[in-house]
Amino acid sequence: TAQGLRDRRMRLSVQIARKFFDLQDMLGFDKASKTIEWLFTKSKKAIKEITLNHQQMKNSYRSREKSESFVSERELEFVTENVNDERGKAQKVANDPLARE
User: pTM for the full model?
Assistant: First the structure.
């Protein structure tokens, strides 16, 4: 964090705590942080897959968002021309009701 490291504790359910401390005993570690480090090392492949999938989902969402809201300059010019044409026609009709196309 911006204020430096802070102590983060987590509560474990009884079942998870038993599994965790049994694993710690089997590994022969005396500190929980070493057990967590071991778990991260053994989970590296799965974590990498999740990270890649998460990034792909974010990129897919962003590209879908862009494509849905993207309007080309030419499309914008076409719409603007049509609006201006319609306004011109409306002005002609307002000024001269007999001048209809």
Answer: 0.48
Q: Say if CB 21 and CB 32 are below 8 A apart.
A: no
Place of tokens 């983060």: 8
Contact (CB, 8 A) for 72 and 66: no
Write phi, then psi, for 50 (nearest 5 degrees): -65, -45
Which regions of the chain are under pLDDT 50? 93, 101
Domain ranges of the chain: 14-63
Cα dihedral 20→25→27→31 (10° resolution) = 70
How many angstroms separate the CA atoms of 34 and 24, rounded?
Answer: 8
Asked if 12 and 23 count as a contact pair (C-beta separation under 8 A), the reply is no
